[in-house]
Structures are given as C-alpha cells and as structure tokens.
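Q: Could you fold this chain for me?
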Amino acid sequence: MLLFQDLAQDTPAGEVISEEKTLSVVDLIFNGGTGSVIIISVLFIMLAVALYIYFERLLAVNAASKIDKNFMNQIRDHVTNGKLEAAKLLCAQTDSPVARLTEKGVSRIGKPLDDINTAIENAGTLEVYKLEKNVSILATVAGAAPMIGFLGTVIGMILAFHEMASSGGQAEMGSLASGIYTAMTTTVAGLIVGIIAYIGYNHLVNRTDKVVHKMEANAVDFLDLLNEPL
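A: Sure. Below is the predicted structure, expressed as structure tokens.
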C-alpha cells in the first residue's frame, strides 16, 4: 500500500509518460547506408535539372506566346501598299516566332506560292525545335527517376536479407526493419521526382502546342493575304 502511495506522489495526476520517437527526412536519407545516400543524391540532382529546364523553357514559351494583336494588320497594310522593306523591318523588330515566320514569307514575295509556303514551313520547324529544346530531358527524368528509386529499394532489400542470411537467421528484427523502411525512401524520392518531372513535361508540351497553333494560324493568314486580289 505504501508503495502505491509513493508512486502516486511521484507521478502528477493526469500526466501520461510516453516517449515519442521522431524520424526526420535527413535521418531517413543518411541512415540508409552509402547506397541510399548515393541514389537519393542522384535523384536530387535530377530534380534540380528538371526544375531548371521547366522554368527556363516556361519563360521561353511565355515570351514566344506574346504576339501583338495589331502585328498582322500592320503586315497586311505594308504588303498591300507594296512596302515590303517596312514589313521586313517590322518583323525584325518583333522578337517572336510568328514574326520570324512572317519575315521569311515576306522575303519570298514574288516567287510561287508553293515556294513561300515551303519556306514558312521550314522556318516553322526550326522555331518548334527551339521551343522544344531540352524538353525531352524532362520526359527522361519522369521515366528514369522512379526506376532509380526502385533500384535503391531493391538494393536495400538485398542487403537486409543478406544480413539475415549471414547471421544464420538470428538477425535482430529492429535492424532489419530499419534497413527496409529506409530503403523504401528511395522509392518515395524517385516517385516524387518522377511526378514533378511528368507534370512539368506535360505542362510545357501543352503550352508549346498553343504557340504552334498560333504560328500556324498566322501563317495561314499571311498566305491568305497573298491570295487576296490587289
């Protein structure tokens, strides 16, 4: 009876004694062994490259999508009035794919319409190539990152079972569980990097397609302008 009284006096009423063990992301990375650190470092580099390409291309595509609404009207006026040099100057002063395609068409005025169309198409191919520069790297990261993460997990599982086999089946479950869940962090990291790269890639493709449609629409308008009777 005295023992219970002493315990009641030492422990405040309502206080629950518990020890919570927290695990940070840093601990997960660095407690997974050399292989886990190397793989997650590679994934981090891939993430940095993917983010750099995404934002760099996004700025380039946004700049290419900005087209003055009066641009084609001014080109129409210059071409109709025979001021081809003024039209070329306007195209040169406008930094956009549409302006460069139009300049290519203006410089071919006087030649057969098929030749003008071919010149515009060739110039359009080059502009699309510029817009899609390095975007394929995002697709590569989106596909490779999860596989690299799975590779880290498989390596971690192999090491865990190797430890069990080496100890004759007497390995502590705590050490095995620690190795397994730490190895799983490479899968999580790979999936995160892959998802980010995949979303970034599809967003850039969608924005690039819109710019390409604008280029095609303006090219059609320019060719229609040449077909109009004077």
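A (continued): The radius of gyration is 32 Å.
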